[in-house]
Specification:
The structure holds two protein chains of two kinds.
Chain A lengths: L3 E8 L5 H9 L3 E5 L6 E9 L2 E7 L11 H13 L3 E7 L3 H13 L4 E6 L1 H6 L2 E3 L1 H7 L4 E4 L8 H11 L12 H16 L8 H9 L11 H14 L7 H20 E3 L6 H9 L5 H45 L4 H19 L2 H17 L1 H15 L7 H9 L1 H7 L6 H10 L9 H11 L4 H25 L10 E3 L9 H35 L11 H13 L7 H9 L5 H10 L4 H5 L5 H26 L17 H9 L2 H13 L4 H40 L4
Parallel strand pairs in A: 1-4, 1-5, 5-6, 6-8
Antiparallel strand pairs in A: 2-3, 3-4, 7-9
Helix pairs in contact in A: 3-10, 5-10, 7-8, 7-9, 12-13, 12-14, 12-20, 12-26, 13-21, 13-24, 14-21, 16-17, 17-29, 18-29, 19-20, 19-27, 19-28, 20-28, 21-24, 22-23, 23-24, 28-29
Chain B lengths: L1 H10 L4 E2 H8 L3 H13 L3 E4 L29 E4 L1
Antiparallel strand pairs in B: 2-3
The chains are: A alpha/beta, B alpha+beta.
């Protein structure tokens, strides 16, 4: 009898291999890499009586093809190293999936022991397995039923291993006749070739038919040619590839086995399935998605508004006062005071007020994703995208566009066809990036205080509709011939999001926003301040260089209802980055510092005021959040009306609600920021960047004019 | 069965979910996943990933995608017919 044994642990990922490996080997383990691969290999040992057993924990795989390095390693180990035994760890709660690898392992004819693990999970799912019948169906292979992390007896398993090692594995899969005929042609050639003597001829023939040609890399040219001839001819008799026919046959066998071996409790529909009956329903799916997004925007608005007032108050009050006092104390020249207070503080403050709103937005997105709903929303929208004849792969770049258009443009690299890539990149700017949200929020609150969530929601929707419409037009004109692609999507089960991970996500994304927007706004606020003050000593900002240039553009925008130099000026600066649109307004309409200086309360009182303001904002945000979930019921009837921030008042002097909405439509759709244009130029060249600019100038102008003129005709002006 | 799944994907006029396929063929969703994986191996389907298959290397190596605000969500698997 042998004094040592070599055994391998094989199984699907997460089938519980590692737990079994650790239980069998204890501390006697060695971890390294497979030769020439970055895949980790774990080897362990145990001794039973005078027999030393070496166990190799093979990488978790779903099959034994050479599709990935892990699979290649597992396959090579079994058919080249020929261990004395392979322990196939099978997840009993997922038998259908696990049996594919089991069949492939048994086809290698290496002695096999099946460890049916996770029986407790299977039981909870209402599954009962007939292991005796399963063993019969699998050619009499030894099966042990267990749960690795409960009542696991390592010694019992070790004895079973010794008893099973070296025993014959008798499973012979009977493939359909057309496949068998080709296997029969290949087997004699394999037998004749000296380099292939180590393999089981039938198994190798099947591997070759499945496209696993690496195994015959080192054989004679003559044999290679014979193989090529047979394999080339083999495709003729099959509807799809012969590899599909082989896999299909294995699945048929698996289905036949599981139908007999598994008993299920009837009528046990999972929670996810019950919810999905509505959420992904052909008719309810899109309305549910819209209601969800409506609630998201309602929460963003309700939670951010009180904090917006508070941050605005801190910036225009104590912070400006402290800065002014400090500048006076250090005898700073007037222009330095103006630059810091009217330029930097106004610009940065103008954008930071939206941080709570963005934080809330990221928080809600994370909740939707982690709960599993976002996958459903994507699924529902995928259907819509397909109807718009968009390339299936366009989906991810376009969704990324809601965050930032720049990575979205780069993400089009995933699309193989150049025409489809360009088409997608032309549509991405219509996806409303997060930098535009502050513009929607400030205008929404200034002009539609009770309905700003509907306004914001309508803008996001409009962006999608415009992208779809332009997509349809371009795919039938400039990009004719692009075929519609079908997608298959995974819908993960619904789960409860964890507080720590959603907070972490929201915090990371908000920090990114502050870092990116903060840097660019500080620089650009300085430049804008300069342009608003040149020629030096100019009294009215309209007469500054910036005012003059903006004023010359304004008439073009007059038909859309916002032909003022302030509006055109902010749109021009928005070409640098969309965050700057709001900070430009904040600088143009900045409240003179003398008015603020009057609100001197003393340092202690000002700190107290900041803290009290934060507390009040938090209470108000909490109340408003509760009201979102009780539609039609007023929980807090005596709530004071929110105070307007200075910028809202100033905007109302230049816009009407109708022209404000037309302006928002323009902001949503007009030329993306410089970084996005740069990405388009880098990826597709000047020509397509220019086409994109042309589209994003013409489309928003037409639509905003339609909104304003149409609204005026309807008496909404 | 695998061939029928492929036919079903081809004949569907839009996006289809793994749940739809599971219900249509009365098989466990995990088996549908496995089958899609097999179809991917045989080149009939391609998995759409954030990392590009053609021009990109990986998100980690892409300076822009590291700033992407949505890369780390939308992790669900998506397949497309080749």
């Amino acid at each position: 009898m042998k004094k040592s044994l070599r055994i391998a642990l094989a199984g699907n990922p997460n089938a519980g291999k590692s737990t079994i490996f650790n239980a069998l080997t204890g501390d006697d383990q060695h971890v390294g890499n497979w030769p020439g691969k970055t895949v980790e290999v774990k080897t362990g040992y145990f001794q039973i009586d005078d027999l030393k057993v070496e166990i190799t924990d093979l990488p978790g795989t779903y099959s034994l093809s050479s599709f990935s390095p892990e699979e290649e390693i597992a396959r090579n180990f079994l058919i080249q190293e020929k261990p004395d035994l392979v322990i196939n760890v099978v997840d009993a709660s997922n038998l259908e999936r696990n049996l594919y690898l089991t069949l492939q392992v048994l086809e290698t004819h290496v002695p096999t022991l099946i460890l049916l693990n996770m029986n407790d999970v299977a039981e909870r799912r209402g599954l009962t397995l007939n292991t005796k019948l399963l063993s019969e169906k699998l050619g009499g292979v030894e099966i042990i039923q267990m749960t690795a992390n409960k009542n696991f007896s390592g010694d019992e398993l070790k004895r079973k291993i010794i008893a099973t090692a070296g025993t014959q594995n008798d499973l012979h899969l009977e493939y359909p006749k057309p496949i068998t005929e080709i296997i029969d042609q290949l087997v004699p050639v394999i037998r004749q070739e000296a380099g292939l003597k180590i393999y089981d001829p039938t198994h190798l023939a099947v591997q070759l038919l499945e496209g696993d040609r690496h195994l015959i890399d080192d054989i004679s040219l003559e044999a290679k040619n014979t193989f090529s001839k047979i394999l080339g001819k083999s495709q003729e008799n099959f509807e799809e590839d012969i590899s599909i026919a082989i896999a299909d046959h294995r699945y048929k066998i698996i289905q036949g086995i599981t139908e007999k071996v598994i008993s299920r409790k009837k009528g046990d529909v999972s929670f996810s399935d019950r919810v999905d009956n509505f959420v992904t329903n052909k008719f309810f799916g899109i309305p549910i998605f819209f209601v969800t997004m409506y609630i998201v925007f309602q929460l963003v608005q309700n939670v951010s508004a009180p904090y917006l007032d508070w941050i605005d108050g801190v910036f225009t009050g104590p912070l400006t006062h402290w800065a002014t006092t400090f500048l006076i104390w250090v005898n700073a020249p007037d222009w330095v005071s103006s630059l810091i207070v009217d330029g930097v503080l106004a610009g940065v403050g103008g954008i930071l007020v939206f941080l709570p709103g963005l934080f809330m937005m990221y928080l809600l997105l994370a909740i939707l994703e982690q709960s599993g709903y976002m996958a459903r929303a994507a699924f529902v929208m995928d259907r819509f995208m397909n109807k718009a004849r968009l390339h299936g792969k366009s989906f991810i770049p376009m969704i990324l566009g809601f965050g930032c258009n720049v990575p979205a443009i780069y993400a089009t690299r995933t699309i193989k066809k150049p025409e489809a890539r360009i088409l997608t990149s032309l549509l991405i700017p219509f996806m409303s990036c997060s930098a535009r949200l502050p513009v929607y929020l400030i205008f929404g609150m200034a002009f539609f205080p009770d309905k700003s969530n509907i306004v914001i929601f309508s803008l996001y929707l409009l962006g999608i509709l415009v992208a779809a419409s332009i997509g349809i037009i371009l795919s039938r004109t400039l990009f004719r011939g692009e075929t519609l692609s079908i997608m298959v999507m995974e819908l993960p089960p619904y789960r409860l999001p964890t507080l720590s991970s959603i907070l972490k996500y929201a915090k990371n994304q908000s920090s990114k926003f502050v870092k990116n927007a903060g840097t660019i706004i500080v620089v650009f606020s300085t430049i804008l301040w300069l342009l608003l003050n040149l020629p030096w000593g100019v009294q009215n900002a309209r007469d500054s260089y910036f005012g003059q240039v903006s004023n010359s553009i304004a008439p073009i925008l007059a038909p859309a209802g916002f032909g003022t130099w302030e509006a055109s000026g902010s749109l021009v600066t928005g070409l640098v980055a969309k965050e700057i649109v709001v900070s430009t307004f904040a600088q143009i309409y900045h409240i003179p510092q003398e008015e603020i200086a009057e609100s001197d309360l003393g340092l202690g009182l000002e700190f107290k005021e900041i803290a009290v303001g934060f507390g009040e904002a938090t209470i108000l945000a909490g109340k408003e959040t509760l009201e979102v979930f009780t539609p039609g019921i007023t929980l807090f009837p005596d709530e004071e009306l929110r105070e307007d921030i200075g910028l809202s008042k100033a905007l109302r002097s230049s816009f009407t609600p109708l022209s404000a909405y037309a302006f928002l439509v323009f902001v949503l759709l007009y030329v993306p920021c410089a970084a996005t244009m740069g990405a388009q130029k880098q990826e597709f060249g000047w020509k397509w960047m220019t086409v994109s600019i042309a589209i994003t100038l013409i489309v928003p102008w037409i639509l905003s004019v339609l909104v304003f003129q149409g609204g005026t005709l309807l008496g909404l002006g | 069965m695998l061939i029928n799944i492929l036919k079903s994907i081809r004949n569907n006029s839009g996006t289809i979910s793994l749940t739809d396929l599971s219900k249509e063929f009365n098989i466990e969703i995990s088996l549908v996943e496995q089958m899609l994986n097999t179809l991917e191996r045989s080149g009939k389907l391609i998995e759409i990933k954030i990392e590009g298959t053609e021009n990109c290397t990986s998100c980690e190596e892409c300076p822009i995608l590291n700033n992407c605000s949505l890369t780390d969500i939308f992790q669900e698997k998506r397949y497309q017919l080749t």
